[in-house]
Amino acid sequence: xxxxxxxxxxxxxxxxxxxxxxxxxxxxxxxxxxxxxxxxxxxxxxxxxxxxxxxxxxxxxxxxxxxxxxxxxxxxxxxxxxxxxxxxxxxxxxxxxxxxxxxxxxxxxxxxxxxxxxxxxxxxxxxxxxxxxxxxxxxxxxxxxxxxxxxxxxxxxxxxxxxxxxxxxxxxxxxxxxxxxxxxxxxxxxxxxxxxxxxxxxxxxxxxxxxxxxxxxxxxxxxxxxxxxxxxxxxxxxxxxxxxxxxxxxxxxxxxxxxxxxxxxxxxxxxxxxxxxxxxxxxxxxxxxxxxxxxxxxxxxxxxxxxxxxxxxxxxxxxxxxxxxxxxxxxxxxxxxxxxxxxxxxxxxxxxxxxxxxxxxxxxxxxxxxxxxxxxxxxxxxxxxxxxxxxxxxxxxxxxxxxxxxxxxxxxxxxxxxxxxxxxxxxxxxxxxxxxxxxxxxxxxxxxxxxxxxxxxxxxxxxxxxxxxxxxxxxxxxxxxxxxxxxxxxxxxxxxxxxxxxxxxxxxxxxxxxxxxxxxxxxxxxxxxxxxxxxxxxxxxxxxxxxxxxxxxxxxxxxxxxxxxxxxxxxxxxxxxxxxxxxxxxxxxxxxxxxxxxxxxxxxxxxxxxxxxxxxxxxxxxxxxxxxxxxxxxxxxxxxxxxxxxxxxxxxxxxxxxxxxxxxxxxxxxxxxxxxxxxxxxxxxxxxxxxxxxxxxxxxxxxxxxxxxxxxxxxxxxxxxxxxxxxxxxxxxxxxxxxxxxxxxxxxxxxxxxxxxxxxxxxx
Length: 764
What we know:
Layout: E1 5-6, E2 60-70, E3 75-85, E4 92-98, H1 124-132, E5 141-147, E6 155-158, E7 161-170, E8 175-185, E9 197-201, E10 206-211, E11 217-218, E12 221-222, E13 226-227, E14 243-252, E15 256-259, E16 262-263, H2 266-269, H3 272-281, E17 289-292, H4 294-300, E18 308-318, E19 323-326, E20 330-338, E21 341-349, H5 356-375, E22 383-388, E23 393-396, E24 399-402, H6 414-429, H7 445-466, H8 489-492, H9 511-534, H10 536-550, H11 557-566, H12 573-581, E25 589-599, H13 604-613, E26 623-628, H14 632-640, E27 643-644, H15 650-653, H16 660-665, E28 671-678, E29 687-693, E30 698-703, E31 714-721, E32 725-730, E33 745-746, H17 751-763
Parallel strand pairs: 1-26, 2-14, 21-22, 22-24
Antiparallel strand pairs: 2-3, 3-8, 4-7, 4-11, 5-8, 6-7, 9-10, 10-19, 12-13, 14-18, 15-19, 16-18, 17-20, 20-21, 23-24, 25-26, 25-27, 25-28, 28-31, 29-30, 29-32, 32-33
């Protein structure tokens, strides 16, 4: 039987022609081209699949340190022995050591690189610290650098880096031990929000010390760039090798101290009462146990011991070390089950943090460890500590500093409460990224901050589910400030003069934009990738694969990108390019909707085509012609009676081409539409469309992003529907970060009614 050639919208006959004017060629600008030019060539160290290669290596730096805190003079002194192992295939003539405290030295270059005039306003403490006081006399004082047997080594200090000359080159497999004796004046971290230092409490004369990047630390040497010896100017954080730490810290005898690693002499530094409470805490999974109560801390902070006590800590396979100490600390612990082992969730805080900290800090720590472990790997260390510190949010292995202080009367706002919850989740989460999945923060801030902020959003929501009583009555879910797509729209639609691609060095981004660039935009990009592009099953499998491939190793962005594709069978180069390598934005909408009817007579397009080529209708195979409602074709064919009633007689019109059995299997579309979708924005994204019908029902359709591969500006979709379409909405749940929703709806009058509820949801 003769079959009918059915063209749903129109017939396209393309006649080729060559212009007399010579055309200019162009490079491949297709949004779906591969990232071959941006990516490094795979090699024996890092493979094309994102797996560490057969020749992958990383260096090791082991530390033995004796540290002394002079509380009266706020001075820290140390003697350290570094044992460096060269696992690289290269011969090393010298070693590079980081001296991050030199950022605070009087001759520091950090203030000189900024272009900073007076703003219309300034915080009083910053005005005093920056312009009314003598500059702080900080920075390392290096007393000596010697071999393990005391012979002097040549060294040169360049701002925050120190080059140590080796007596002889290190070959593959060699170990070299050397000593550094140093001291520095500890800074007040509060005015300038420094990552490390002390807070002074004038009412009782005490300090709370949160001490990080306090010792000369080995720089990373790897296959990507050799020595990572970029200067530390303040914004960019750290790149560090893994190693083992044996650290003895001497502080006033009435101090409570904790830090990275296992406490080796607990019975010597804990009282019997503290030991009994510690044993209780190891069996308490739902409620923290106070090791030191607030009442006990208040008594201790009134007396200043002249005796000292040494706390001994040992940590294996960590990239850094930090500690906190004070006689003001309240100290609590709770066990949390991670996999088949128990981990201790710990909090340390002065009385000024209560009641908020005593009620919630340790519970937030425990919940965070569960959430991150579910998304990556079981937390491998034996504890995680949250320390209360004003104006702080900073992470180190097993320990972090967090803000969130109630008023003096103990009351606090929702902003303070949720801010405290959020920063604890974020900083505890950093144990996974970058403390274990050890990316280079100095080069790629987003690899730790952005990935961590993405996981922070998931962990915050799960914390709200585990502890609904922590939420205020008006909040059904945790009010996260990053993750959902609408929250990044103001930044994505901002002034392009001040926006940088995610793939930018943090130090080269204005401080006012760093949060959006390194934290919120990559977090949103990953959330959209999980929820909209890949789906949770594919994303979660691939993300966990990345975390496990690169835990305790040094991944690059390409290792992440390649692993996500390798483990999901999805080509995501278009997504990485748009979201990470450009500052393009999302804007997709409905440009035009046309309704069509079937005609048995040629439409204008076909009549013109036949006339141009001298054809007559009788010479053509039987065709069905679609004519636009309200067009000249429509009026002409309506008069001639050649329009077929879509709703009643379409199948009858086709009877001569099909058997009765075949006709019974055919669908019965009554309405034909040609919908044109436009993309004024540069980012290609899946096209999510909700079609609304006259009977009150609706249908959701998600067209893959590849729908834009041949035309980056607009595409057409032919819709044959059994029900009349009365509305079309693009991105109905605001899940793609579309910066302009005025073109997202047809008819246009529906825009406000469709999106009012989403505006309210974003506000909440």
